[in-house]
Amino acid sequence: MLKLRTRAMAAILTLGMAGVASAEDYTSYVNPFVGTTNFGTTNPGAIVPNGMMSVVPFNVMGSSDNVYDKDARWWSTPYEFNNKFFTGYAHVALSGVGCPELGSLLTMATTGDLEPDYHKYGSAYTEETATPGYYGNRLTKYDIVTEVTATKRSSAERYTFPGGRGNILINLGEGLTNESGATVRRVSPTEIEGSKLLGTFCYNAQAVFPIYFVMRVSKAPSSQGYWKMQRKMEGPEAAWDPDNGKYKLYTKYGRELSGDDIGYWYSYDDLKPGEQVEVRMGVSFVSVANARENLDKEQAGLTFDRIAADAKKIWNDDLGRIRVKGGSDEQKRVFYTGLYHALIHPNVLNDVNGQYPKMESAENGHSTYDRYTVFSLWDTYRNLHQLMTLVYPERQIDMVRSMVDMSKEWGWLPKWELYGRETFTMEGDPSLPVIVDTWRKGLTDFDIDAAYEAMKRSATTPGKDNPMRPDIDLYLEKAYVPLGVYSGDMSGDNSVSHALEYYVADAALAWLAEQRGDTELARTLRQRSLGYKNYYSKESGTLRPKLADGTFLSPFDPRQGENFEVVPGFHEGSAWNYTFFVPHDVDGLVKLMGGKRKFVDRLQMVMDSALYDPANEPDIAYPYLFSRFGGEEWRTQKEVNRLLGKYFTTKPDGIPGNDDTGTMSGWAVFSMIGMYPDCPGEPFYTLTSPVFDEVEIDLPEGRKLTIEADRTLPSDIYIQSMTLGGKPLKKYRISHDELLKGGTLKFNLGQTPKK
Amino acid sequence: MLKLRTRAMAAILTLGMAGVASAEDYTSYVNPFVGTTNFGTTNPGAIVPNGMMSVVPFNVMGSSDNVYDKDARWWSTPYEFNNKFFTGYAHVALSGVGCPELGSLLTMATTGDLEPDYHKYGSAYTEETATPGYYGNRLTKYDIVTEVTATKRSSAERYTFPGGRGNILINLGEGLTNESGATVRRVSPTEIEGSKLLGTFCYNAQAVFPIYFVMRVSKAPSSQGYWKMQRKMEGPEAAWDPDNGKYKLYTKYGRELSGDDIGYWYSYDDLKPGEQVEVRMGVSFVSVANARENLDKEQAGLTFDRIAADAKKIWNDDLGRIRVKGGSDEQKRVFYTGLYHALIHPNVLNDVNGQYPKMESAENGHSTYDRYTVFSLWDTYRNLHQLMTLVYPERQIDMVRSMVDMSKEWGWLPKWELYGRETFTMEGDPSLPVIVDTWRKGLTDFDIDAAYEAMKRSATTPGKDNPMRPDIDLYLEKAYVPLGVYSGDMSGDNSVSHALEYYVADAALAWLAEQRGDTELARTLRQRSLGYKNYYSKESGTLRPKLADGTFLSPFDPRQGENFEVVPGFHEGSAWNYTFFVPHDVDGLVKLMGGKRKFVDRLQMVMDSALYDPANEPDIAYPYLFSRFGGEEWRTQKEVNRLLGKYFTTKPDGIPGNDDTGTMSGWAVFSMIGMYPDCPGEPFYTLTSPVFDEVEIDLPEGRKLTIEADRTLPSDIYIQSMTLGGKPLKKYRISHDELLKGGTLKFNLGQTPKK
């Protein structure tokens, strides 16, 4: 997927390698183009791990040469691999989400006469290159080489012009977000500052927030100014105004300019052939002053090449925390690309001075740790935070602190938090399992008292006062959410999905309540977490929507809901995608289904009959359920191997669907090293056969986790035996503590399933 | 025209009178509704003399109940007397101009459910009241009494609600200006701040500037937020978004919001019957911080009633500088209303801390005197600055200082300056006569060296480097501007009008050059100022456009150009409107026309044949030309009397056309006291019969100018004899010095023209 590299890029790679000394270059295995088709919605933009800033090629508007256009259909990523028409670089974008958001502050370079209309200034491109922290291409219309890199909170862009007239543009009117409105002000001949409104993510109309920016160009222009689309007037006024309904250029104005569709340009009359003009931008979600401080502090005196080399080194250090040997080159690329995608969100929210926008507030807080944002928790609570806890614990503890502080600021833990706003996207109470999971794995340096209070509040506050569980009253009363009562709409009701999430959350909280001596609450919560049994229908052999009167929805088709079809009871899935999702009480579900054999057969039928959706979260732990049963673990190994091979590749479509801020990638990362956290909130991993021969993971205080696999052939995917610290290991689900303290985990793999 | 007064208003009037002690209430003669029909484009809003802030009822949009709609036709005033649909109060508006501008920051009060669409929230009104510094009405749809008053840089608004639910709105999307784009930010539960772009006056696309504001409400609301018109989306995105293409309410957001069509609301859930909510707003053209300081410094602790009473007192002091006795009540009303309108522009630009936006710059200056703006000089150089010089010299000197400092900041003196931007509206070099006129009348405490340099620059810089005289090259070469050469358009070329203005300006500058010893330049300029002779056509008996080859335009109709019809050579007028406009060389024109008799007869023919346009500036001094000739002065007295009676009344249409920032009113004020400055740049007044029996004008240092008229009947309009300081006065044109030092000027008036 790595296309041609420019000479400049080659130089950067060399520089980067110098920084890493003799260590392996793990970034060379990352292909940022993976996931950029097939609705993976990742992008090849430049970013550092969990950075606020990303600089992303924007190619989803302005031309019918593009296959996908942000305004012509539902579209949620600034970049698509097959699109052709580049209209600039977006600053700060989301990776792997399903709703359009952010992706604004679009910078562009052009030659010739100034043209503020993106339909006209956009260009085809070639020589596309992307490596961690760097992206570049060549604009064929202009013969301009464009390159971008990033620090945590700022961007650096380098435009190499063919000479003559050239322009640098920033478009503040467009972006992936559906919010509009921006303001910009000239600060000096080479600096502007401003803000733009973002938000309404997944059409949560009140979840809006501003981004602030400061942008500099490296060379004072021959001329500069603003542009703004003029309101269309009718009649005699229109006749007088040559700019009516057009982009007007403000050539002599130098103070604030605001509007829906505005921009700013710098024009250079006489560039030398090959002359480079650089653009630097700092952003903040607090203020313009902080955006400037972020830019100054993170870039002081640094060249573009140095920033790119630094970004590469940071990535290499992060990726290198997991060192794999063996496996094919393709598998290494899949692995490190997955790890790369898992290290994008959540991302840092606070500025270099510690300020950040408080949760659901117009006020700013000051943080002594890294405050994080973009918590797509319905996705990430399943494996991404477990990956953080294991490999990046210093980040995971800050993520949990961030979540707990949100509850202090707003009263509630996050569900789908986006830059200080709760978007209420998807459902459940996913922060509870994340916090309990983290605590149980020994990361405890956060305010557990406040966390516990907030978790209890969410699990027990009745009525309209509880924004996290809109249907809590009947859930508390009946231990299930009846179909249609809250939504008033039987056809598109997500009642079963809601309740299934509450069960998982309440099970996690029950453990903590017990620990803290709230025995009665623990008992209640545990009991409540078993309410899924209400939904089990012997007739269909699945969970099934239930009405308020206790009867099941009829007629009922458990296959309905494939491909995001709207169905009663289930959100983004069919009954089959949800039926086995009781990770905290698998034994209970087994009993309901009539025993292990029936459970296993039915689960295998799901896997075999295309009733398993690899592209969305509810069923992604299904393959690991086989390993709960002695003699059936080979099915996990087989299915995981099959799914990895089929859905995770180094092609642009190498992620099965939305990456979901790294959760799909997280599934692949865990699966490829031979383990998976199959129940959020429980500190356990289910084991499977690693694809690599050796995996070494850095742990705190210089400790390491080593996983080895003995295989003769690459197709040796079945576990024959295991040892932990040299001692035989019989069970396939082990605790976090056992794993970390047990010494090397060793797999003996073979061709034959061990039944 | 004064409609019903509310009880609140009665209280204010009482308060106001207390402040004025036993002196006469001159404000009671002012009818701010005069000039609010007939395209007078004045307004009845609240303002203090030459104040930055005006608070103007806005009734020119949103309903077909309005006769005139700002978006349906060319429209240049926020208020029209016959319109019915009130949509709020504009903050900072222009008075008496012919192009749409300013009139934004629209505040409104409503009851019931919040409605952000002005088409729906507007209301009919009754009980309209306006006196200097105060305006009020009752909104019939809501039964809300609205009242507004102003300090120099801030507004106070009082809304008396019927009780129950009420709302205060500020609409930042609409306004009279054709520029759009604003930003607003919540500062506290009762304060917002922001800015809005204004400009493109008369479609000078680059003459744009921001207004900054801080607004407070007196009572914390039950809820508040922003609104913004949402960009219209198509397809699946539109289907998801309930706000698509509508005004969206931002109920939970509290940081910056920017856009083309935005606003902010405060809602009160439970107002008591008769409860009042007040709004206070400070503005600045420098910054939000200055807007806040202006508000704080000018309103600290003051009640609405006190601010209104202070405004009234300031007006009374200013109006009372000219005290008239005799004449009808109607004449007094016309006079003081005219004086009121003449004291609105130019208006103060600097903030209380002295800062102001520098001319054609994004930087701010600091002024130790009052920096003025809104210099409609093609109009005001004819009489308004002469009125300022005579009666308000402390303001006139600051106005001249402002003009000179503009030349220091930008290189050029103003032509039609608007908030730091040169709009290049109309033509000529009108600041030259203003400065020379002021200097020659003894107001000399300004930087005459810099002024002189700037004047010379304007009069002599050739080519494209001279923005003030776009056609200077051929003017310098031929002493006239040939038709069509510069415009490339024979049909709408203003060449003769341009040149006529240059002649007047160069004549004024010639005097100063001579004074300063630049004898050669003085000679050249004097010679150039006689270039009008090139345009004189014996055939038509008028000035006439001339081609570059020296031949006259043919065919030619000197009547063409009435009613603002576009014609070759003349701007907003016919050849007849311009032919006698050579005030600096009337004798020369007389010779061209074949002597006094022919000149007088032809001028009288113009006056008698409706070839005189009382509604625009070029010919407004015509009636005074008769007095240049012994035995013909009665014609001046007759014509001025006739024109005053016909065109200046106390009805809403009591100004003949655009008031032109007070110039039409200035004509009436001078004419009614018996004198007129008939040649800008020359310190002379031509005398005519006053309409009052006694006029007393305050002069600096406690001196007074007294004018008396002895008449038997009101219809005694002809001067029989005059005395100055008791000595017979034979001439009808006297110098400023003679007038001020001569003692009482006394007219004996009678029924019979003195031929």
Could you characterize the architecture of this molecule?
Two copies of one chain form a homodimer. Chain A is α+β, with helices and mostly antiparallel strands and 755 residues long. Among the domains of chain A are: 7-317, Beta-galactosidase, Chain A, domain 5 (Distorted Sandwich); 357-466, Up-down Bundle (Glutathione S-transferase Yfyf (Class Pi), Chain A, domain 2). The first copy, chain A, has 21 helices and 35 strands. In chain A, the strands form eight sheets. The first copy, chain A, has a nine-stranded antiparallel beta sheet with strand order 5-6-7-8-17-12-11-10-15. In chain A, strand 1 (46-47) and strand 2 (54-57) form a beta hairpin. In chain A, helix 9 (393-410) crosses helix 11 (448-460). The two termini of chain A are 40 Å apart. Chains A and B meet through strand 10, strand 11, strand 12, helix 3 and strand 15 of A and strand 10, strand 11, strand 12, helix 3 and strand 15 of B. Chains A, B: GO terms for molecular function: carbohydrate binding; peptide-N4-(N-acetyl-beta-glucosaminyl)asparagine amidase activity.
Can you tag this structure with a few keywords?
eight-stranded antiparallel β-sheet, alpha+beta, Glutathione S-transferase Yfyf (Class Pi), Chain A, domain 2, 755 residues, 35 strands, homodimer
Secondary structure layout plus pairing:
The structure is a homodimer of 755-residue chains.
Chain A: H1 7-20, E1 46-47, E2 54-57, E3 89-93, E4 102-111, H2 118-121, E5 125-131, E6 134-139, E7 144-150, E8 154-160, E9 164-171, E10 182-188, E11 191-199, E12 208-217, E13 223-229, H3 235-240, E14 247-250, E15 257-259, E16 262-271, E17 276-284, H4 288-299, H5 304-319, E18 322-325, H6 329-342, E19 347-348, E20 355-357, E21 364-366, E22 372-373, E23 375-376, H7 377-380, H8 384-391, H9 393-410, E24 416-418, E25 421-422, H10 431-440, H11 448-460, H12 472-478, H13 495-515, H14 519-529, E26 536-537, E27 542-543, H15 575-579, H16 586-593, H17 596-608, H18 622-625, H19 633-647, H20 663-673, E28 675-676, E29 684-687, E30 694-698, E31 704-710, E32 718-724, E33 727-728, E34 733-735, H21 736-741, E35 745-750
Helix pairs in contact in A: 1-5, 6-20, 8-9, 9-10, 9-11, 10-13, 11-13, 13-14
